[in-house]
Amino acid sequence: MAAACVILDIGGVLEMTPETGWVQRWEERLALPPGTVHERMDDVWQAGNVGSISERTVHEQVASRLGLDAPQVEAFMADLWTEYLGAPNEELIAYVQGLRGSCRLGILSNSFVGARERETALYRFDELVEQIVYSHEIGIEKPDLRAFEAACAALAVRPESCLFIDDYAVNVEAARAAGMRAHLFEDNAGTITRIAAHLDAGPRVAGHVPLG
């Protein structure tokens, strides 16, 4: 019998990532109309999400499209990463740490090139779960069903044994379409209750006592 599995998103779930207003501040600083940064950079952001562009090229495109010098590019990207990385959801992370060894654990995240190195350094998600599947490394973003298939393949689990946690309803619906159980993250209490119910109903890794 397959072991029960929990797969989590990062941004908005394991990380809290409120908007910091950094883009608006840069537009004001550069005297650009609102929306200009995303308009000029949209295809670069998308390429970074699926790993078809390097960090170096991202920096070059930021410089070229926004007219920034090297120190400005570094400051611009630092602001981007500050919002992207947010702050750890310590309560949920601690709960997931307590699950290690009793079920299979993974992460499936839409991401940007450079995210693994930074999130590993800050949060050690590689020690929290067995496998991390990033969109920029597999070239596929949620809600594409292939992203969920890739996560199951990485963990060698069947989708029906998995509970997927995400803060976007479209991704929750896609996970269900891929054969998983899924939960929309709204708060820690509800999410922890849902994970516990999933594990209580499903099989465990051999040799471990089921959680109550």
From TrEMBL:
Q: Which Gene3D superfamilies match?
A: HAD superfamily/HAD-like, Putative phosphatase, domain 2
Q: InterPro entries given for it?
A: HAD-like_sf, HAD-SF_hydro_IA, HAD_sf, PGP-like_dom2
User: Which Pfam family is one of those matched by this entry?
Assistant: Hydrolase
Entry coiled-coil feature ranges? none
Query: What NCBIfam families does the database record attribute to this sequence?
Result: HAD-SF-IA-v1, HAD-SF-IA-v3
- Name the chain's protein: HAD family phosphatase
Natural source organism: Streptomyces lannensis
